[in-house]
Amino acid sequence: MLLQIIINGILKGGLYALMALGMSLIWGVMDIINIAHGAFIMLGAYCTYWFFSLLGIDPFISLFLSVAILFVIGYAIQRYLINLVIRATIFITLILAFGIEIFISNLALVMWSANVRMVQVPYGASNFSIGSVTIPYARLGAFIIALIIAGIFYYILNKTRLGRSIRATSQDLDAARLVGVDVAKTYSFTFGLGVGAAGAAGTLWAVLFPINPMMGGVLTLKSFVVVILGGLGTMFGPIVGGLTLGVAEALGTNWFGATYENLISFTILVLVLIFLPKGILGKSE
Amino acid sequence: MKAGSKILKGLLVMGLVIGLVISLNSGAYSKDVIKIGCAMSFTGKKSRTGKLYVDSLKLAEATINKAGGIKVGGKAYLVKIKFYDDKSNAAESAKLIEKLITEDKVNFLLGPYSSGITIPDSIVAQRYRIPMVEGGGASGKIFSRHNPYIFGTLPAAGQYFRTTLEMLAGFKPKPKKIAIIYGDDKFDISVAKGAKKIAEGLGLKVVLYEKISESSADFNTILTKVKSLAPDALLMAGHTEGGINLIQQAKELNVNLKMISLTVGPSEADFRKSLGKNANYIFGVASWSPQMNYKGYLFKNTQEFVKIFKAKYGYDPDYHNASAIAEMAVLKNAIERAGTLNPQKVRDAIAKTDLMTIYGPVKFNPNGQIKGSSVVLQIQGGQVYQVYPNGTKKPIYPMPAWKDR
């Protein structure tokens, strides 16, 4: 049983990692705590739902479309909204992000109603067994996709010109400007990438869980915990944080009771802040 | 910093404008209107079920007004329900009830959705001595406070699973072990406590009795536990999304039990739509089902109500909807019997209610909660049927294993 529980935790951890990937990127590079992150995950989930129920496109294919749509939304929001207050204190950007979250959630509520929806793919809940351990295909698929997307992110950030300018901007804004990096554009791309990753997380979420317009809040919190656990400034932070949280929650709810899931997450968060203030993989400045 | 303060200024101006618009809109009622106040969850976590109440209450309001309103001492009054959005927040809801009483000067109150929100609301109603009829909270905690101003149309939470457990204990061979899991919400806790007591009284061993987190979507750990304990039946007191997650993940992890029963979910269209084929064979509990047929008070009978409701809103009403209709029926009937709008006299009339509604017979216990019990439902072939007692179909037990479907 313990093995099954640990595997459940690892599979969930992959999804947590993907959820946190975008938030970590935006936070690390632009110093914006994107409170609206969960709302973007929700939008990604709804994109998937509509592609599936209206056009019959499989979620693992529409993933690319959802990511593209969310990238455009993220790019535009950064370019035309957040850019206006990017030089202000973190408090102002926080309020703006908070406003965006309220706006998106409530717009979704008005447009799509609070009905609970679910993407019922034919292979939805099917599974295979290895010995006594049961593994659902959809969860395994979501886990693998999460790792692939993290890999793509790693490639973009480390091997492309865009990635180099993103990293340069995050390390030293003025120096980056001096060597000719278009900071405004870089920020827009970063935000777009982060929101696009949220869209991918939303797609995978929609395959596994029912969705509704108000689902974002909890997911923002979860992503936040994962980012802090893993540490800012490294692409592996969210993965380590996500897996840690996934396994810790699975074991914790097994030992202490299912009602304490959030208590367990936040206890871990506090412990990490006390003993590893920069997160598990965080770089010292 | 400049851009920031500009935006703040802008927000401030917007706030003032919106405030002005809202305040100009209120207080525009004519005199011959009975005002009924209701704080309901239009947004937030409870908004999906909250909408069921709003739809029903609006339909009841329109139906009463179309039939000439409420007659008080020879004079006909129209009813007007004043709604506020409590954002699924208990503290907010209690504040709004206070506002409804002191600012909007409503004559009577309707309850919110969910037990946790009903408790503070009922305390405010008691403080101002305004009767509140509620159809959205069933926890014993609402009615154990010796509050004479609260009346509820949902049967006691502790009794919810009684019929289910009686049915289960009657199956051959008799099941031995059951598991009970429940959400961390007042209603669910009451349901689970009651179910545990009843199960033990019937000689069923409760091998797992565990609280789960309402905000969590993940049931993998608890299902893994259930699988290793292998009970005959799993009962869950929770809400719709939790129910969907539980069933979906039970299939993912190949957890096969003879019976899974949920309090909320199976009677709702969303549940069946979300789970598709996987919703089949799941048991549910309800104080009402659309297959019943009672002579009505606001509507001719249950079947006609179901037809009118479906034509207007495009979905099948469930027990929440019917319970809300009963709220309005009780109020109208009591006001007319009292022959006055005096809150104390109407309260006394409500306590003496003996009314047949599309929801079933309504009579209140001395503590204010309806005398009644629930029926067992099962989803068969995508439809919900009442299977016990006197079901329209026989219960299918044990449920077929996932791989045999």
Strand and helix map with partners:
The complex is a heterodimer of chains A (285) and B (405).
Chain A: H1 2-30, H2 37-55, H3 59-80, H4 90-112, E1 127-130, E2 133-136, H5 137-159, H6 161-171, H7 173-178, H8 183-208, H9 216-230, H10 237-256, H11 261-275
Antiparallel strand pairs in A: 1-2
Helix pairs in contact in A: 1-5, 1-8, 1-9, 1-10, 2-3, 2-4, 2-8, 2-9, 3-8, 5-6, 5-8, 6-8, 9-10, 9-11, 10-11
Chain B: H1 2-25, E1 33-40, H2 47-66, E2 70-72, E3 75-85, H3 90-102, E4 108-110, H4 115-127, E5 132-134, H5 140-143, E6 150-152, H6 162-170, E7 177-183, H7 186-201, E8 205-212, H8 220-229, E9 233-237, H9 240-252, E10 259-262, H10 269-275, E11 283-286, H11 302-313, H12 319-338, H13 343-351, E12 354-357, E13 360-363, E14 375-380, E15 383-388
Parallel strand pairs in B: 1-3, 1-4, 4-5, 5-6, 7-8, 7-9, 9-10, 10-11
Antiparallel strand pairs in B: 2-3, 11-14, 12-13, 14-15
Describe this structure in words.
The complex is a heterodimer of chains A (285) and B (405). Chain A is mostly helical and 285 residues long. Chain A has one domain. Helices cover 73% and strands 3% of the residues of chain A. Chain A contains eleven helices and two strands. Chain A has a two-stranded antiparallel sheet with strand order 1-2. The radius of gyration of chain A is 19 Å and the shape is globular. About 2% of the residues of chain B have low confidence. A seven-stranded mixed beta sheet of chain B has the order 8-7-9-10-11-14-15, covered by helices on one side. Chain B has two domains: 197 residues, 3-Layer(aba) Sandwich (Rossmann fold), CATH 3.40.50.2300; 164 residues, 3-Layer(aba) Sandwich (Rossmann fold), CATH 3.40.50. Chain B is 42% helix and 20% strand. Chain B has 405 residues and is of the alpha/beta class. The longest helix of chain B is centred in the N-terminal third of the chain and has 24 residues. The interface between A and B is large, with 46 and 47 residues.
